[in-house]
């Protein structure tokens, strides 16, 4: 029995090496959980890292790694059966749609409320021979990936304060919005291209009465941003903007 956890860990690591490129990996962050055993809620920062082959928890300086027995489910719901360092069985349920992780160990039943869930895309290494042009020079393939996060995030020239000032000067309150006393923020999503231009501008949340259309009009006329960078290279990055409509 005492060697069972070690054997499972070794097997799960071997399986991980084989399946790494196929496993859907997640990193989840929680700042509070509910203890169903006592009925109390507690504040504690916890980070989870897991896929279909492994599961780990990080709480402050404490790192807990589990041996994987099995995992069932896919999509928004996954059920793990794990072994902890004491060889006790732990049951974990991850629900992506409702953003929680349930943790069950004997009489303990905890629910971690997730405030952030990030899917980690495994890096795929291309081992194929480089493509050459007619002169025998290697053809460098351009990175056209749209990043959700980057080492250096894009920025409106002059910073956030200048962007707010740009909106206040250029936004024109639609007549219907003024008539109906509409007030609030239009949430937009856009891609900052490598040259700083904005593309793929979409409305995520609208307050109606023509405000979404006006927000898109003004964003399309924006001057070029300072583009994002990742690993020292200029890349395309998706950004979110809040455009305020506050009629007097």
Descriptive labels:
five-stranded mixed beta sheet, 4 helices, 2 domains, 248 residues, 17% helix
What would a concise description of this structure say?
With 248 residues, this protein is of the alpha+beta class. Helix content is 17%, strand content 43%. It is flat and about 65 Å long.
What features would you describe in this structure?
With 248 residues, the chain is of the alpha+beta class. The protein has two domains: 4-120, no CATH class; 146-245, TolA/TonB C-terminal domain. It is built from four helices and 13 strands. The protein has helices spanning 4-19, 160-170, 175-179, 211-220, and strands spanning 25-35, 40-50, 55-59, 62-72, 77-83, 89-95, 100-105, 108-120, 146-147, 184-192, 198-205, 228-230, 233-245. The protein starts with a helix and ends with a strand. The model is unreliable at 5-22 (pLDDT under 50).
List the helices and strands and how they pair.
Layout: H1 4-19, E1 25-35, E2 40-50, E3 55-59, E4 62-72, E5 77-83, E6 89-95, E7 100-105, E8 108-120, E9 146-147, H2 160-170, H3 175-179, E10 184-192, E11 198-205, H4 211-220, E12 228-230, E13 233-245
Parallel strand pairs: 9-13
Antiparallel strand pairs: 1-2, 1-8, 2-3, 3-4, 4-5, 5-6, 6-7, 7-8, 10-11, 10-13, 12-13
């Amino acid at each position: 029995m005492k060697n069972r956890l070690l054997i499972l860990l070794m097997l799960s690591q071997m399986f991980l090496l084989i399946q790494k490129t196929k496993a859907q990996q997640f990193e989840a962050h929680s700042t509070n959980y509910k203890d169903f055993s006592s009925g109390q809620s507690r504040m504690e920062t916890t980070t989870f890292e897991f896929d279909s082959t492994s599961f780990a928890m990080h709480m402050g300086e404490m790192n807990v790694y589990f041996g994987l027995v099995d995992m069932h489910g896919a999509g928004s719901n996954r059920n793990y059966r794990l072994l902890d360092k004491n060889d006790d069985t732990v049951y974990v349920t991850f629900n992506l749609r409702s953003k929680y992780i349930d943790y069950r160990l004997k009489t303990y039943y905890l629910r971690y409320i997730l405030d952030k869930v990030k899917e980690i895309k495994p890096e795929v290494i291309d081992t194929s021979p480089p493509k050459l042009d007619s002169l025998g020079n290697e053809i460098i393939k351009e990175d056209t990936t749209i990043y959700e996060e980057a080492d250096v995030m894009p920025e409106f020239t002059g910073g956030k304060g200048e962007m707010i000032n740009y909106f206040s000067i250029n936004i024109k309150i639609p007549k219907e919005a003024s008539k109906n006393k509409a007030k609030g923020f239009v949430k937009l999503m856009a891609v900052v291209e490598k040259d700083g231009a904005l593309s793929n501008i979409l409305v995520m949340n609208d307050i109606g009465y023509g405000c979404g259309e006006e927000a898109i009009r003004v964003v399309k006329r924006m001057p070029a941003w300072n583009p994002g960078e990742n690993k020292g290279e200029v890349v395309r990055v998706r950004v979110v903007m809040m455009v305020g409509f506050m009629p007097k």
